[in-house]
Amino acid sequence: MSESVYHQIGGREAVEAVVNDFYDRVLSDDRLEVYFEGMDMQELRAHQVQFISAVAGGPVDYSGANMREAHDHLGVTEEHFAVVADYLERALRENGVGDDNVDAIMSEVAALKDPIIGA
Q: Which family does the entry's similarity section mention (predicted)?
């Protein structure tokens, strides 16, 4: 049995480090601040940890709203989706996640583009 991406990257502790780095980047970007006004960031970070853990094959099932429902009211643009995806990829790489695992996680994220932007 092969080890999951989740375990290869260091499990929950590693995912939490990536998520914290990711949100530090996102929340520092003036172009994205409108999407996070009034949001419970502690809850959002917890959902993101759960989401990344799930797509990386961790012992977690993502229980948040489906992506279309969760983002429909935000009017996320294709440009802003790309910026956020880039921040996630950078956070993964800069927290020591290897290329193959970054590619695996980012392919899961890419599959969510249409539901998130409402296409």
A: Belongs to the truncated hemoglobin family. Group I subfamily.
Burial of 117 (0-12, 13-18, 19+ CB in 10 A): buried
Q: At how many degrees (to 10) do helices 78-94 and 99-110 cross?
A: 160
Domain that residue 85 falls in: 5-117
Task: Count the domains in the chain.
Answer: 1
Give the span between the Cα atoms of 20 and 46, in whole angstroms. Answer: 10
Contact between 25 and 87 (Cβ < 8 Å): yes
Residue pair 8/102 in contact by the 8 Å Cβ criterion: no
Place of tokens 């990536």: 18
Query: Helix 41-55 and helix 11-27: axis angle, to 10°?
Result: 130
Helices (H), 1-119: 5-8, 11-27, 41-55, 67-71, 78-94, 99-110, 113-117
**pLDDT, tens digit (0-9, with 9 covering 90-100), for 12-51:** 999 999 999 999 999 999 999 888 989 899 999 998 999 8
